Amino acid sequence: MKKLVFIAFAGIVMLFHGFCSSEQAPKYIFLHQATSAPPISYYDYIIIGGGTAGCPLAATLSQNATVLLLERGGSPYGNPNITDLSAFGRALSDLSHTSPSQRFISEDGVINARARVLGGGSCLNAGFYTRAGARYVDSAGWDGALTNESYRWVEKVVAFEPPIKQWQCAVRDGLLEAGVNPYNGFTYDHLFGTKVGGTIFDGDGQRHTAADLLEYANPEGITVMLHASVHKILFRVKEKMKPFAHGVVFRDAAGNKHRAYLNHGPKNEIIVSAGALGSPQLLMLSGLGPKDHLKAHNITVVLDQPLVGQGMSDNPMNAIFVPSPSPVEVSLIQVVGITHFGSYIEAASGENFAGSPQQRDFGMFSPKIGQLSTVPPKQRTPEALSRAIDSLQALDPSVFRGGFILEKVMGPISTGHLELKTKNPNDNPVITFNYFKDPQDLQRCVDGLKVIETIIESKAFTKFRYDYLSIPILLNMTANAPVNLLPRHANVSTSLEQFCKDTVMTIWHYHGGCQVGKVVDSDYRVLGVDALRVIDGSTFNNSPGTNPQATVMMLGRYMGVKILKERLESFKTN
């Protein structure tokens, strides 16, 4: 019997999904470095965060108002580590202070990342594009017609149908054999069963992101400042009146301070779109949050709001590596199985998993990006990462022939919280997600892994598996890699429950911290203050669909249309 030399798993998928635009960068005349900003400026709307929600929101509002969009990172254009499918993972492994990705480690011990670039997480992820389900839209209270119209507005620029080749076809057919029916073909819609979803990579392997949606903007109505780090939202506070947000303080790359204020007008607003970490963090730094926590950091309390930073969730992801005797194509996430029990099944594959053999980067499965499921979360130290990276580099590239089949827990039900670590907005806050704290999340993981096992043993997958590699052996390989040789004797595999806990990773779909009904109302206005909204994934109670990026972009457009409508109606009445 032929021995298989391979390595099983040093890291896994970035599913926040998306890349930044094509080879020819758009000529945005409204893009500027914050060092060129005047000391004081005035706008109708000030949007903090040029990410997945902030870009479509700013583009929409600019049609009938003056908009300042403040982004703490730089431009994605001209950076092949962002734009090229073949370079997937390199931006995530860049730990420099100029990187478009900023690494953080939750208190749970899971290594994670947040975006620091115009276009946000859509510049870093694996590109999967899919809408939220109809039930999710209804529960959010969104207008169905405007929601669909807003999705289509996004899709005209950033969404494509991916080519489906042999590995992804085998996953698709294996899902159907496993009973994840019906087959819904290619669709952006969230439907129970198996489907092929969209991608933000075009046919040339170029990423298109939320930054591309700025092509809709009115160049006369928008100013985008890059490397503009907002330190504080300014409030006017008068007795017996709600605090009124009227300006922001931001610093440029040289550390110079600038102030931007709202023009006088009843509908002018500051809108925070800084993401699930940045938005609650900035509210706290500006004096909105749990008063005792703010006082401990010597922050003046504007409003005691104990729910800011609460309800933080990150959908847990677990996967099984399947070495293949046959060559497989390079693929990111394309096929998904949407189960009735609350787990989503996806897969990715390829020699070096989108990394070049010459560069030996190992792409989306590299411990360089922090995905190290081979040791339990609390043991994922920098030293452990270094050992894994060194072990990988010593192996022959052929050992990576195969792919990963993964499951993501929907929701999730388990929640945690966010707290400030320092008063510097560029520092990561302290985050706890409490993966699998709720037993239903753990059960969904177990059930998802059972479906994966069925896929691996399906007739459709025969070509892509070694007969002598049993499921217990694959589980042990996935949990104990890097290894140089297949063990002569398989260890007794751990329970699936323990496998879930020990090999949990992020899928980069974390959300919460400024949730609807707790921190903001149904129109995303911050409760207890005036002229301030939060519009991004921090407002979500659950992650929408199998991947949130389509819905976050949709929400930016959706709320931009609603806000402009309110603005026009106010002009008519006045």
From TrEMBL:
PROSITE patterns, sorted? GMC_OXRED_1, GMC_OXRED_2
Give start and end of each Glucose-methanol-choline oxidoreductase N-terminal domain: 115-138, 275-289
Entry annotated with the keyword Flavoprotein: yes
InterPro entries, per this entry? Answer: FAD/NAD-bd_sf, GMC_Oxidoreductase-Related, GMC_OxRdtase, GMC_OxRdtase_N, GMC_OxRtase_C
Specify the superkingdom: Eukaryota
Signal peptide interval: 1-22
Per UniProt, the keywords (alphabetical) are:
FAD, Flavoprotein, Signal
SUPFAM superfamilies with a match to the protein in the record: FAD-linked reductases, C-terminal domain, FAD/NAD(P)-binding domain
Name the cofactor(s): FAD
Signal found in the keyword field: yes
Q: Enumerate the Gene3D superfamilies for this protein.
A: 3.30.410.40, FAD/NAD(P)-binding domain
Concerning its family, UniProt says: Belongs to the GMC oxidoreductase family.
UniProt cross-references to PANTHER family, sorted A to Z: OS04G0573100 PROTEIN, OSJNBA0019K04.7 PROTEIN
Q: What is this protein called?
A: Glucose-methanol-choline oxidoreductase N-terminal domain-containing protein
Please report the organism this UniProt entry assigns to the protein.
Penstemon davidsonii
